[in-house]
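We give this protein:

***
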Amino acid sequence: MSPTSRLLAACAVIALTPAHPLLAQTSPESTVTAAQPLTIERVFASPGLSGAVPRGVKLSPDGRWLTLLRGRPDDRERYDLWGFDRTTGKWAMLVDSLKLGSGKDLSEAEKMQRERQRIGDLKGIVSYEWAADSQAILVPLDGDLFLARLDGSVQRLSDTSEDELNPALSPKGAYVSFVRGRRLWTGKVGEAAQPVTPQEQAETVSWGEAEFVAQEEMDRHTGYWWSPDDSRVAVQRFDEAPVAVVTRAAIGAEGTKTYAQRYPLAGTPNAFVSLFVQKPDGSQRVEVELGPDKDIYLARVDWAPDGKTLYVQREDRGQAKLDMLAVDPATGKSRVLFTETAAKGHWIDLSHSYRFLKDGSLVWWSQRDGFGHLWHFKQGKWQQLTKGDWVVTALVGVDETSGKVFFTGTKDDPLAHQVYAIDLKRSGEVHRLTELAFHNSASMDRSGKSLLISRSSVGQPPQVYLADQSGKRIAWVEENKLDAKHPYTPYLASHRPVEFGTIKVADGTVLHWNMITPPLVPGKRYPVFFSHYGGPSNQQVLRDWGSPLAQAVVDKGYIWFEIDNRGSDNRGVKFAKQIFRAMGSVEVADQLAGAEYLKSLPFVDGAKIATYGWSYGGYMTLKMLQANPGVYAAGIAGAPVTKWELYDTHYTERYMGDPKADAAAYARANAMADTARIKDPLLLIHGMADDNVVFENSSALIAKMQGEVVPFEMMLYPGYTHRVGGPKVGPHLWNSIFVFLERHGVKP
C-alpha cells in the first residue's frame, strides 16, 4: 500500500512500438516447442519471471532524462539507476550500485525502515532524487549519500558509521537533509550538513523520523516536510518513553541478538508526537498546535502550494474522526478546516488521495456516501465529483490549468482497476482512459500533464508506458514483451489460464474468486491449494499478472484457488465493516463457502483441500481449522497473529477497538482459545527475527498446543523477519510446504 514515485514532465520522443497481444491470443507452439514445467526453484531465481519491472520512474526537471531503477539480470533483488537521454535516444546506466557501493551492512534502524516499506529484500539503489538543475542526482546507497553528476563524477556527501535515514533534497534543490543520531541534519548541496534539531538526552526521543505505527500502518515513512520555497521545514518530534518494550530476540544461524523494541501493543500507550516548524538552520522554531488531546495520530502533513499554510491531518485514537488542521507556519496556531467522520461501525481509512490546489481548494477522497469517492472542497463547501456503487482506488493527479482530475477506480470492473478522468466543473462525466483487458495503476507529474501507467493482465506481465491526458500511449517505458528473450517464455506452453467467478453467501453478498487448474483429465479429481489473506484493506482477486508461484503450484498438479471475503477492500463500507470488532468471523465463514463450492465441482478432490495464508492469512488458517475441523485436509499458517493484544495499536484498534473496553471481542477473535479443536495437520512457519508479527505470537501458540497435546509441525527461519524469501530460502520454504502436504496425503 506505498505511493508510487511522482513523474515530472511529458516525454514524447521514445519510439513507439505496437502493444504485445495477450497471452491468451499467443500460440504457445509458435514460441516454444515443448511444455517445460515451472519449478519452485526457478520462481525464486534470477532473472525474475515477470520480466523487467522498473521501479522509481521519473523525469528530470528539465525533461531531458527519463530515469528508473532496474534490477540486474543476475540478481533480481539488486537495483541500479538507469537513464534514457531524450536528445540521443540512448539508455545508459547512470549509477552502478556494485561499483559505487561499499557493501557494508545497514544499521538495524535502516533495516527496520526498509522492512516497513516492504523493500527489506532489495539491495543496491532503492531510491533517488533529482537536483533542481537536472545536473545531478541524490543517491542513498549502503547507508551513505552520494551526489552523482551526469558527467560520470560522483561526490560522496557522507562517510560515517551511522546511517543517513530519510534523505531528501529540498523542493528548490538548495538543501540536502537526512536524519542521523535521532536528529534532523541539513546542509547546502555540496556542503557539510549540520544538526538543526536539539540534542535530546533521552534515547526515546527522535526528530525527523516517523514513529513505528506511522511507518508500519499509516504509510507515512518520513518525519519532516520542506516548504515549497525551501524557507521552512516542518519537523516531527516523538518520544517513545510510554511505549511498551518488546524484547525481540533476533535468533540467527550463528547467534542471537536481542533488541528492546518499542512496540505499541493494542490498548497500551503510543508515542507522544509533536510537530514544529523552523528555518532550515533550526532557527525560529515554533510548535504546532495539535490540540489538548495528546493521544492522537499525526496522520499526514502537507504544505499549501504557496507555502503560506501547513495542513495537518489529526486522527483520533479510536480512528473514527479525522480533523484537517490549517496551520500558520509563522506562529504554529491552528484551526480545524473540516472534520471527516467514519460511518457507524466503520473506521477512517487514511489515504494519499487528496491534492491541495493553487486556488486554495482541495480534491479529497472520502467514504462519506458509503463508497470511496472524490469530492471538491472550496470556500467551505463540498461538491461530490464521483459517485456510484464503485470506488475510487487512488487519486492520480490534477491539471489545474484545464481543471481535469485523474484517478483509478472500479467503475467498469471491480477486478480490473482503470484510469479515469473527470472535469472539476462538470462532475459526474467520467471518461475511461485505459483498456478493460488490463488491471492498471498510475502516477502523474505534479502539473498533471502526463500519465505514467502500469498495467498487466492474466496473460501479460507488467508493462509501463507514458500517456497523454487522453490515455493515448506516447512511449513505452518498459514494454516487457513476451518474446523469445523474455524469461517466462520457456514456460508458456505449460501456462494455464486464470478463471474467475462468483458465489453468494448466506446474506446474499456476492464474493469473487479466481482459479487456475491443471489440464483437466475427464474423471480425474485434483487436490486444491487454497490460498487466502482475508484481512481488511486488501484485495487478492484481480485480473492482473499475479505471481508465477501460482503457476508453479499448478504445474505440481494442484488447483490454485483464492476468494475475497467480506471485510476485504474496494467493495464499499457495507462490505468492509462486517469485520468491525468481529475478526475471525465472517471472513472464516466466507472462506468456508469457497471450500464448499470447490467440493461441489466434479474435478475437485474434496478430501484434499489444503489452506495456506501468511500474516493475517496465517491467522485465518488457524481460525479456519478451529472453526471447521475436517473440512480442510491440512493448513499452513505463516507468521500468524495469534492474540490481537500482541499486535500494534493503529491496526488492531482500527478494527477491534480498545481491548480494555471490549475484551469479549478480543477473546472471540484470538486464535488461542480453540487450539484444542485443531484436528487437521498444521504446519506453523515463522521468521525468528520478525518485528511486525513478533515471534511471541507463535511461541505462545506452540506452548499452548504442546500443553494440550495437539500435534502440529513447524518450520522456523533464524534471522528472517516478516518476509521469508529470496533465491535460497524461498525454495526451502515452499518445498517444505509441499513435503508437508505430501506426507499427509494431500498430493496429486
In short: DSSP finds 13 helices and 44 strands in the chain. The radius of gyration is 26 Å.
